[in-house]
Amino acid sequence: MKLKPPFRMNVPMALTWARIAMIPLVIGIFYVPARVLDPHLVNQIACAVFVLAAVTDALDGFLARRYEGWATRMGAFLDPVADKLLVSAALVALVGLDRCDMAVAMIIIGREITVTALREWMAKIGESGLVKVNWFGKIKTIAQMTAIPCLLWYDPVYGFSVALAGEVLLWIAALLTVYSMYVYLRAAVPYFEEQRVKN
To answer: Which whole number is the average pLDDT over 57-81?
Structure first.
């Protein structure tokens, strides 16, 4: 008897796996010696890889919604995991390059872990609708996904400080991160109390 594969491979799934495969490139490119690749070129390549990965994120979601049968449980699980791994890896790399404050990186990464656990808990008790992505979360994502490429690029463009723009946007993302997490936790707290009373 032949075994069935653990999941069905389709275009959105392939894009998600491709995004995961790009994560080591975003970090690894900075370990290439300067005598092999110019540091400015390294910045540009890292930025381009991250942007490409972000584009696959938008594209695989669109395709999964657009075509019947392409939205799978495995894809629904793997897609947000890939996003969080990509962002976390990029932030860790930026901290190592001294382009990002460690506190900001910890706030953003910590929030992602907390909200992921919270959504899993709320789904378990049948109240996942209360912790859907809100507008603050969407704006945070936009600021974050703009800030990281700016900080990876880092070099000024025609006198414009790309690095400064990235730092400002990342701080905005961090503040929105804290507020959006507060909104999610406020919605979930009554259900924590309810579960405690029942137990």
So the answer is: 75
